[in-house]
């Protein structure tokens, strides 16, 4: 037996390891299992180059729990280590690097993930174990098996032992505070999280499976009996879809993999993108487009980041642009510097390139789908819309590409690209300043009469809805020349699309001033501004409008952005049609109470058309209307 000192230049690294990893103790298992996988992969490589001439056998990793002995063992049949190798790889750990790291990063965010980077992976075992043994037999013919043991102080012992199977057992004697890691379900949970797609089969315990009775026993119906047997429980799928070439995968395979990733998800994704990059960085992955519902937030943080099939994190905010976090799926890259702090990631050139590349791929895929099968793309549009709008708002390069496939639906259910729509409506909907005005509604139901009036004039009305609508509209107005948007209820049609030469007004200014107080007293004048406009005789006598600017401000406040306006007061225009015969008739009426009843009735009708007549006022309106019958 040999005893020695682990080469640690700091007094004692272990308390520091424990402290550092406090929040993330569970990753010890990820580190040890991936070391076991590495040891197996290395043996495969040696066998393929002819350096290892023995039998490979079935390479696998086993995690063994012994609750009574309070041990957790990670076993592999990989390359193993000789005493010299232990000395080199375990005792002379890069603790000088670790010391530097400790000084530099102590207390900083992300520090806990640095540990693997400095070769401290194995030592993370001491977060949960009071004693650790390495029992190993090297791949070399006639090698002597050895056991390394340490209790977490820099001292270790090295002994020769009996072990006749190739490979390594890492035995953790779990410490008292870490008793949770002696629970089967806890271990299973960690393996599910980090080891689900490791490239070498990983086994933990057994599971029950039902098979035909091996003795051929029959039940009453003469059928072979089904019996339950315990079989080894493999926790991982060593060949996940993203590691397979796209040509070898069918649509069903992608859907099946989606289910494997998100067993709790009930809805299939809309479509996927298989990423495969090897220059200037290595990256593979599959991104899925979910059907995005109005509630954008719940969709986030579904992309899982892997490094060589080892799960790292599901928070990818630093690696992909924010709008892409709405997607689901997997990104695997050995080149992403996973083991450094978040702020470093954000400024890292490689990470920026990855992010730009993914954005480009996503835009290209959408453009390709649009070109290939427009009908299918249109069918998917309603589910894609928020994603594309979000992308256009947050990334100018994406916006540039998206202009060719971003669609606008009209009230007849037809879809146009922005350019197509502009071309369609230009002849009728160009105003006197040469701007093409897109009329829109967020709800056909709510704006029925406004939409009808617009359509009666031959105008098209677009349906633009969703939480990002008004932000997106502003963006389009800024980036598409000569295009402006107006909601159908923002003003009278003649003012929404102003043409040369206004209609003359039948009412004189004096007559308007005479009538104005009547209307003002019919409504809450904090909220409504009464104005007269010369509209067509066939238009409604009164309409309630909400100026485009005020409404957009309110909407944008509601969904973030532009907070400095404070609470914007809700205000409307009560527009009186100065050419309507019913309005003109009021002038000739002498009975004041009859006049105000008429005015009330007319304003109520206008409110009703906007869905703004409610409660007691609505009730009064109904009663008044009945009295007219
Ligand atoms: P890293 O994996 O980053 O190299 P670790 O601290 O996890 O750092 O492991 C240190 C070294 O110990 C490994 O590089 C490897 O040479 C050796 N090692 C660890 N676990 C095993 C194992 N199960 N079989 C063979 N060698 C191992
Ligand atoms: Mg390691």
Automatic annotation (TrEMBL):
UniProt cross-references to InterPro entries, sorted A to Z: HATPase_C_sf, HATPase_dom, Heat_shock_protein_90_CS, HSP90_C, Hsp90_fam, Hsp90_N, Ribosomal_Su5_D2-typ_SF
CDD domains to which the protein is assigned, alphabetical: HATPase_Hsp90-like
Record bears the keyword Hydrolase: no
Protein name: Chaperone protein HtpG
Gene3D superfamilies per record: 3.30.230.80, 3.40.50.11260, Heat shock protein 90, C-terminal domain (1.20.120.790), Histidine kinase-like ATPase, C-terminal domain (3.30.565.10)
Transmembrane segment boundaries: none
Binding annotation for ATP: 31, 35, 76, 81, 96-97, 168, 342
SUPFAM superfamilies the UniProt entry points to: ATPase domain of HSP90 chaperone/DNA topoisomerase II/histidine kinase, HSP90 C-terminal domain, Ribosomal protein S5 domain 2-like
UniProt signal peptide: none
Domain of life assignment: Bacteria
GO-annotated molecular function: ATP binding; ATP hydrolysis activity; ATP-dependent protein folding chaperone; unfolded protein binding
Naturally occurring in which organism (per UniProt): Fluviicola chungangensis
Histidine kinase/HSP90-like ATPase domain: residues covered: 24-178
Keyword field: ATP-binding, Chaperone, Cytoplasm, Nucleotide-binding, Stress response
Entry similarity comment: Belongs to the heat shock protein 90 family.
